[in-house]
Amino acid sequence: MSRDGKVIVYAAGAWDMFHVGHLNILRAAKALGDILIVGVSTDELVLKYKGHHPLLSYEDRTAVVAACRYVDAVVPQRTLKKDEQLEKLDVDILVVGDDWWKEKVRGHEFMVKHGRRVVYLPYTEGKSSTTLRKALERFYKEQKGKEKL
Predict the structure, then answer these.
(1) Residues 84-100: tens digit of each pLDDT
(2) What H or E segment, with its residue span, contains residue 121?
(3) Which DSSP category does 57 fall into?
(4) DSSP 3-state helix, strand, coil percentages of the chain (rounded to 5)?
């Protein structure tokens, strides 16, 4: 990707069951720079760090994220260690939801060490793939209960 003095922003995540919280992060991330590159965690990586498979495949999640008007490019995120990816893409700003603030997202130290920015964007309260997954499970159980009546 050609630089031409443009500010490159990077956001990574699973992006499973795309929802308004994801949209809010991508909109805010794009407002910080000129080029927004989004890392989509592979299915294997999601299983490793979340302990369950994503509901949507990597290919589907990538297609949905790529279709978002704020996103300029999508790349696979194969590891939680973002340093190599951040260096390779020459990222100026790493963005992440502020629910990671206490832990400091991986890549934070790399960015600071290289004089680059890390921006923790507001987490959209109550809007997450985990919340959606739990709501779907409750709904499914309720429907199964009604079928027995």
Answers:
(1) 999 999 999 999 887 65
(2) strand 117-121
(3) -
(4) 45, 20, 35
Rounded to the nearest angstrom, the gap between the alpha carbon of residue 17 and the centroid of all alpha carbons in its chain is: 11
Under 8 Å CB-to-CB from 52, ≥6 apart: which residues? 46
Structural domain that includes position 71: 8-148
Q: pTM of whole model > 0.85?
A: no
Interval 5-61: pLDDT, tens: 899 999 999 998 888 889 999 999 999 999 999 999 999 999 998 888 898 999 999
Is residue 3 assigned to a domain?
A: no
List the one residue out of 34, 22, 1 whose CA is nearest residue 68.
22
Kindly state whether residue 1 falls inside one of the protein's structural domains.
no
E strands in 17-106:
35-41, 73-77, 93-97
117-121 and 35-41 beta bridge pairing: unpaired
